[in-house]
Amino acid sequence: MASLFYILDSKGAPLICRSYRGDIVQDPPAVFQRRVLDEEEFRVTPVFEEQGHTYCFIRVNDVFFMMVSKINTCPLQQIAFMHSCAQVFEGYFRHVSEETVVDNFVIVYELLDEMCDFGLPQYTEAKVLKEYITQEGLISHLLPEEKLNVKALPPAVTGVGGGTPWRMPGKYKYRRNEVFLDVVENVSLLASPEGETLSSEIVGQLKMRVRLSGMPTLKLGLNDKAMLGMTGRSGRLVEMADVKFHQCVRLDQFESDRIISFIPPDGNFDLMTYRTSRKISPLVHVECTFFSKGSTQVEMTITARTTFRRNTTASFVDILIPIPGDADKPEAKCSLGRLHYAPESSVLIWSLRNLGGGKQFSCLCKFHLPSVRSSDPKALEKAPIQVKFEIPFLTASGFQVRYLKVVEKSNYEALPWVRYITQSGDYQIRTH
């Protein structure tokens, strides 16, 4: 429970001050300047205590957000709330800075009144807040047009919430009720020239787009592999770590029966993120061999092999092979796709489209160097090869959705759509 909320400039001077309880007699900006700005950097902590008062702060660009409490409170809650405030402000005036905070101080106070009540966090969903607090009207005549990106300013709304502040009852109605779920995994991997995985990481997201009428409850069931991974039960490998849910998910129900149940926000949002560091085999492996042809000509053989299942097709695979910056006249002959030279980054890019699984392709490339570098072609094998790809209908971790159900009291028919996409992150293959 916070007593004060401050936005301070880079020198610690207050730009915004909102008092919720009126029980602070200290001078918080002076304390902040002494304990943070004037202190040695290695001694500064985001949470500190001063004469029985708890201070929490974060830095957002060139300003500081600070909350002060006199009674026992949860610092993590206050830090999370300040980050949410920053995201909401960015939704209103794009960039949070000293200038934009001063120019939009009226809307900042309106938002703080709705987002926090008597020091307790309330509503932090920008979509809902924008329906009640907007920026046009009188303010549109006072501020430059580029500072504004919302519509009209009604009276301040107090206590509009309920159990679902991210979705207001009686507000949404669609002729066609649909919900879209994208399971997107980004694969970062480092492989040896022989194709052995040296390190790998998968970062996954469940992205949703909701177009549903009323107040529906969605239930999402995951495959057993993913479920066991998130529980971390003894005797089984923990497949997933750093699992984070959107605030709409009922965590108590997930803990009891392992079903993700929630009343979703309207529109686009991230339902869940996760990470796994379990070693996986390379989805695409590339071998590259250099040969010297005379004193200045180099011949290179590139072999690309896909190891994902045969009934899956990659939308694209781009293979980036580094070559010397003074290379000239690259010529290529590829069994599939095309190879072109990007002189600005000194790489050859082999572009493949609609590449099936379990396939192997090769490319022969010749280029000239203006001077003799070395009689050993291995001297050219230095920087790793980078691979970029996108593979639909596949998850590298094995994550799958067993079902997605929509339940609403009017019993309308909803169409759920689930799609899987695996993309490359930092995907590299060593050449030596």
Automatic annotation (TrEMBL):
Organism taxonomic ancestry: Eukaryota, Discoba, Euglenozoa, Kinetoplastea, Metakinetoplastina
Keywords, sorted A to Z: Membrane, Protein transport, Transport
GO cellular component terms attached to this protein's record: clathrin adaptor complex; endomembrane system
Subcellular location: Endomembrane system
Full protein name: Adaptor medium chain 1
PANTHER family: AP COMPLEX SUBUNIT MU
UniProt similarity note: Belongs to the adaptor complexes medium subunit family.
BP terms from Gene Ontology: intracellular protein transport; vesicle-mediated transport
Entry keyword annotation includes Membrane: yes
Pfam families: Adap_comp_sub, Clat_adaptor_s
Domain MHD intervals: 176-430
Lineage: superkingdom: Eukaryota
Entry keyword annotation includes NADP: no
Alphabetized InterPro entries for the sequence: Adaptor_comp_med_subunit (IPR050431), AP2_Mu_C_sf (IPR036168), AP_mu_sigma_su (IPR022775), Clathrin_mu (IPR001392), Clathrin_mu_CS (IPR018240), Longin-like_dom_sf (IPR011012), MHD (IPR028565)
